[in-house]
Design brief:
This protein is α+β, with helices and mostly antiparallel strands. Among the domains are: about 160 residues, 2-enoyl-CoA Hydratase, Chain A, domain 1, CATH 3.90.226; about 80 residues, Muramoyl-pentapeptide Carboxypeptidase, domain 1 (Orthogonal Bundle). It contains 12 helices and 21 strands. Strands 1, 2, 5, 6, 7, 8, 9 and 10 form an 8-stranded antiparallel beta sheet that branches. A 6-stranded mixed beta sheet has the order 12-13-14-17-18-21, with helices on both faces. Strands 3, 15, 16, 19 and 20 form a 5-stranded antiparallel beta sheet that branches. A hairpin with a 5-residue loop joins strand 19 and strand 20. Helix 6 packs parallel to helix 7 and helix 7 runs parallel beside helix 8. It is flat and about 75 Å long. The N terminus is likely disordered.
Length: about 475
């Protein structure tokens, strides 16, 4: 890759990852964290402000009605300054949390497996990791976590909230979640587990006598570029006619790994990403690849595609000229720099923006697909909450029933309506579903029937033959192959 000296000093981070033992995250790293001694000396004006802070510190230390240790006051002052920035991506971690954060960037960890960030002070899901407990339980991008095991997260820092969600394999995190569009709060009992971070999955599809390659990148970890290289080499050895790159649900990761990936597929005619500092100076980064691939490429994105995944998607589209299929991406476009202090605590501060090859800033806007395709409504239904003593039944009306009706439709037992009213046709559809799955045929949705419905919908959502976005990507790819 070709970079100027200034770009090498910048670091990028996507979010914190909920795991065992602390706050986890995926970083986009150009080099090791900066030494705090490299910061310029304060001016006379700055010294006046520092003197005021020191006066407050000394006054609290000597006059407060009970003793407060120095570390608590120092950490509180740092956190207060960061909170004043109103920036969810600037953060301070104590030595223990910083150490766990670094360890989390390895090939596996224990936890529920979901990327989170603070949005307007609320702990919000960026994306669950594919196959993780969070994913299987039904957590979705933009879900807001309000409580963990009965304790409210209101007013907590991200690190504090994550410390409650974290835990050892086999323990349970009971989450109370607010979902956009849902009229009631959702509750999840998620059993924490070890999360292996295999990040690249590949397969081929035979369509119209063409060999279509498919690579899914679920996050961008320390080995993702190597995994991608092996996957791409394998597909090219199989003489693919076209390639689909899927970054749906990908919350981001290391920038240098994304660069390496883009270096394999995007030519050097345009920058793959640009960094803009506080003075408006832009520094582009280019691939070393001289010519385009001899086959067309299509990208897949959704609302869970964030940060590094968005860099990849934007480069595919704007630098590579390749179409993007799906729905608008998450929208994370800021750059952070890490500072490690002598006590091994760490500050991450937003230092710049990253821009697309054409100079667009997608922060809080996301990347719009070339071809917008939404999945069927049953892909997005909330989990069913059914009291074991209060089944859903005839003549009832609720959002839970509406979700169940959508699930019935998705599993092939269409009740003909999805407005939440439990009519006779819904009774018939429930009975047919129960009979087909060896359940007591009651026509009522009890906890066991609800669980089976959710299980079958989960299988369908993960099955490529029901994936409208993937099907559309194949159709677009076939048209481009023919050109």
């Amino acid at each position: 890759m070709k970079f100027s000296g200034k770009i090498v000093a910048l670091l990028m981070i996507v979010s914190l990852l909920v795991g065992a033992g602390g706050a986890y995250g995926a970083m986009l790293i150009f080099q090791k964290p900066e030494n705090p001694t490299a910061v310029e000396s304060p001016s006379a004006s700055d010294n006046a402000h520092f003197a005021k802070i020191e006066s407050v510190y000394q006054y609290i230390d000597s006059k407060y009605f009970k003793k407060v240790d120095d570390e608590t006051l120092t950490n509180g002052a740092i956190k207060g300054m960061l909170e004043a920035l109103n920036d969810p991506f600037s953060d301070y971690m104590d030595p223990k949390t910083a150490s766990e954060f670094t360890q989390s960037l390895s090939s596996s960890f224990e936890g529920i497996g979901a990327e989170v960030q603070l949005v307007n002070g609320v702990v919000t899901i960026v994306s669950p990791i594919k196959g993780s407990p969070a994913d299987k339980a039904g957590l979705r991008p933009h879900d807001q976590i309000l409580k963990v095991n009965g304790k409210s997260l209101d007013g907590m820092s991200l690190s504090e909230a994550v410390s409650l969600i974290k835990g050892k394999k086999g323990t349970v995190a009971h989450l109370v979640v607010k979902r956009q569009g849902a009229t009631h709060l959702l509750e999840f009992d998620i059993v924490r587990d070890k999360i292996p971070l295999t990040t690249v999955y590949t397969k081929t599809f035979k369509q119209e006598n063409k060999n279509l390659g498919y690579i899914q990148i679920t996050s961008v970890g320390e080995n993702t570029d190597k995994e991608f290289s092996k996957a791409l080499e394998k597909l090219e050895d199989e003489h693919i006619d076209g390639l689909i790159i899927d970054v749906r649900g990908n919350p981001g990761g290391y920038l240098d790994k994304v660069e390496n990936i883009l270096n394999m597929i995007i030519s050097s005619q345009k920058p793959i990403v640009q960094i803009e500092d506080r003075n408006g100076e832009r520094i582009p980064a280019y691939s070393n690849l001289k010519a385009k691939k001899p086959y067309p490429i299509v990208g897949l994105i959704d609302g869970g595609s964030a940060s590094a995944a968005e860099i990849l998607a934007a480069a595919l589209n704007e630098a590579g000229g390749y179409p993007l299929i799906g729905v608008k991406s998450f929208g994370k476009g800021t750059v952070q720099q890490a500072v490690t202090f002598p006590d091994k605590s760490e500050l991450k501060l937003t230092m710049a923006k990253w821009l697309t090859p054409d100079g667009n800033w997608i922060h809080k806007k996301g990347i719009k697909p070339t071809v917008k395709v939404e999945e069927p409504d049953y892909f997005y239904v909330a989990p069913l909450v059914v009291d074991k003593d209060k089944p859903l039944k005839y003549d009832m009306n609720s959002e839970q029933i509406a979700n169940a009706q959508k699930m019935l439709k998705g599993t092939g037992f269409d009740p003909g309506r999805y407005d939440g009213y439990f009519d006779e046709d819904t009774v018939t559809a429930v009975k047919a579903f129960q009979k087909a799955h060896d359940l007591p045929v009651t026509g009522e949705i009890n906890a066991k029937t609800a669980s089976e419905l959710e299980y079958k919908i989960y299988d369908i959502v993960k099955d490529p033959k029901y994936d409208l976005q993937l099907k559309t990507a194949m159709q677009v790819l076939l048209k481009n192959i023919e050109k």
